[in-house]
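A quick aside before the break. I want you to see a complete sequence-to-structure record at least once, exactly as it would be stored in a machine-readable document. Don't worry about memorizing anything.
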Amino acid sequence: MLKNMQEVLEYGFEVLNRVYFDGELPPIVITIMSSPRTNGHYTVNEVWRSEEDYLHEINISAEHLNRPIENIMATLCHEMVHYYCALHGIQDTSQGGRYHNKNFKREAETRGLMIQQAKYIGWSVTSPSDTFIQVLRTNGIEKPLDINRDGERMYMGFVGGTSVGQTGTAGMMPVDTKKKKSSTRRYQCPCCGNRLRATKDIRVMCMECNEQYIKID
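That is the input. The structure line, written in tokens, reads:
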């Protein structure tokens, strides 16, 4: 199932590279991995090796795949802007890549993204413009299925394994799979995706984005 989403992201990279970057961006590895605190990231270093080549990575958060496809693609394009800036020597962030400056805002907004400022992370809050959404529709970019990783959910059937120096199966033990009712509530910032738990209903602000957390369950 995840393969379908991976293929859409890779196709999206091709389309956005052609439409907004004149095809300048070299091949990159696109991953879907756990990243509950961010919607995505771009690696400054070339962290992947393919034969004799070394490649950068763009990761899309597995926890935040439950967003509309236009927002997922806006995150992809956001990271592509970082890639473009790195290739062209444009300093678009500071504070270890956390704070997004006006150089990033300028480059992102020329590529169909709408950028808002948030405390501590700068011009980073990203959403798709109507023109950007139309590019996706024109090129047939759609969400293949509704899927995301629920990092809060634990599920296990059997625990087993082989210790170093052993052969065979060790300690196959049944585990209680009955889900216990939780008294906690989960809240999420609608901008940066940061989450928190509380044992009662609360009202709390995200100091990074100046947005009120919303209750998600």
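Two observations worth writing down. Residues 2-21 form the longest helix (20 residues). Confidence is low (pLDDT under 50) at residues 154-177. We'll return to this after the break.
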